[in-house]
Amino acid sequence: MQSLWPVPFAVQRCPEAAEINPVLVRALKAMRLMDTVATSANFYASSDDLISRIHLPEFQVLLKFIASAVQHLAKQSNAQAWPPGKLSMDLQFVGCWFQIQNGQAFHDVHTHGNCSWSGVYYLQIDSAEQRCRHATLGDMNGVTRFYGPYTQFQAGAYMDMGNAYLQKNSMDIQPEEGMLVIFPSYLPHKAMAYEGNKDRIIISFNVQINARSGNQIHAYSGT
To answer: CB under 8 Å to 91, separation ≥6 — which residues?
Structure first.
């Protein structure tokens, strides 16, 4: 048996989270207050140019942690795909932004473009114990839900015990402060409704990894 086309996925925790998160939370809240065109009190999404807007050592610590984690996952995922020998690779953040969410606001299902890897880092959120006590949202309060890449085909698909492995087509991540989640950019996901004592504050990003010698691995065929 071979399991073809797996979906690589990684969850890590930033060892410096306790030191850097409070500083970054204050900075991002200040940036939101300075945005005169922000309209919603319960949901805010910044522009995706944080790399050029934040010049704090704590942000550089976070970016180095993210870059290292993405490089590690990409190397593991491509172990059988990258050609043998030493390759010179460039990792580039092609988008980095933050979101602030509360008052049962949510971010609907979407994917990311212009990148191979995407991710989310949880800066601030109520504890799981606190979130799950919500009267209506319960244990779905503030989770990030990921959908299998075959979800779009299931509406008309035949389902029986022979393909039972396809029937659970989503996974919920219970966020924690300092947690980093990395996933392929094509993977559909959403931020479920959240309401808590703390705002749910995340930093999201898109990454490209390019070989300096070019990205073509397999010869082109056809005419």
So the answer is: 67, 70, 71, 207, 208, 209
Closest Cα partner for 9 from 120, 115, 107, 92? 120
pTM metric for this prediction: 0.94
Give me the domains of the chain, ranges plus CATH numbers.
10-80+87-152+168-211 (2.60.120.620)
Decide if 158 contacts 63 (C-beta within 8 A).
no
Cα distance between residue 34 and residue 92, in whole Å: 28
Task: Judge whether 49 and 96 are in contact, CB under 8 Å.
Answer: yes
**Three-class DSSP category at 202:** strand
Q: Say how far apart CA 32 and CA 29 lie, in whole Å.
A: 5
168-202 confidence digits (pLDDT tens) = 899 999 999 999 999 999 999 999 999 999 999 99
